[in-house]
Amino acid sequence: TYTNANLSSGDQVxxxxxxxxxxxxxxxxxxxxxxxxxxxxxxxxGALTGNFATLGEAFAFINTNNGSGDVTATIxxxxxxxxxxxxxxxxxxxxxxxxxxxxxxxxxxxxxxxxNGADNVTIDGLSFTENNRxxxxxxxxxxxxxxxxxxxxxxxxxxTLEASGINNSIMVIS
Length: 174
Fold this sequence. Notes:
Oligomer: single chain
Order of helices and strands: EEEEEEHEEEEEEEEEEEE
Strand order of the largest sheet: 6-5-7-10-13-16
Distance between the termini: 44 Å
Structural class: mainly beta
Number of strands: 18
Strand content: 35-45%
Helix content: under 10%
Radius of gyration: 20 Å
């Protein structure tokens, strides 16, 4: 298995195999070139740009950058969030939209998305064009979204929010 987080579409990968067996001839064998087609799961555009594997990674990037302006996080492929996607209070106006039918999922006893004092965030399950849908699904016993810490001017609309377990809320505002 070969893993490289720095590959981009159009990069070419070659494999050179080397044998230590005395009977191997030739000792090295090279593969054909493979041209990579990389799909980034979450893409930031606007005042901040970048490509990320998860929504949580995109939010962490936003949290660490000082600045202001409009930022759109487009979910281009389904994501599995391995930790809470926390967005803290920043000077950015954040819009999260899907491209196609997308699912942001996790299986843990904490929310998938946490807006920790974050202001001016819109999570819109239908993007600007086409008939796209966003589902935020927590398959364990916790909420899909938590809003807390004096967060204000936030809008969650046209999304499917799913939480699993008995007596659990799909969204918690505290």
